[in-house]
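BUG: 3D viewer hangs when loading the predicted structure for this chain

Environment: internal workstation, default settings.
Expected: structure renders.
Actual: progress bar stalls at 90%.

Input used:
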Amino acid sequence: MDKRIMKTKRALKDAMLKLLREKNLESITATEICQEALTSRNTFYNYYSDKYALLQDCFADLAADVEQRFDVYQSENNPDCGLSQAFQNLVDAFLDAEVDYDAIKVLSSFDLGSMYYRFLVQSLAKLEEKYERRYNSLLAPGYDYKQINAFVVLGFWGFIHANPSLNREEIRAQTKRLAADLAQSKCFVQR
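Structure tokens produced before the viewer hung:
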């Protein structure tokens, strides 16, 4: 991709994230995004059909970041691909990436919340596909991995965001403990 295109798209994504920190998604306009990015509406519409397409591109960046972090964590501290450590690495990957994309987790709107949920499910599904041979056989009979995926995503998302009074490290520690307990549950074959 041309460097100018990459720079313009980065400016538009950064503008969207900045505006999301200041207001809800429904009240953000393409004009505001363009003003913040110092670009024209024509340029915006060359790359995106609307603000939702731009936000999807932000989610794609976040997904790539999560996957890259997860792969690094797996290679660093889970060479045997243990399920418990894989869950904990996934928690770390999401929480660490979320810091850079803090505006996206601001669930001030139904649209943003739905898009964030879809992003989480799709990201986990992509990682499952990548590691399917290693982990799919660990599901106990009678459990479908897509249903477990949805359960894990909604459960962890709710667990992480349910108590805003906790600091990030408390949330991380508690979520990793829950991940380890889940991996040791009867939902998975223990080896």
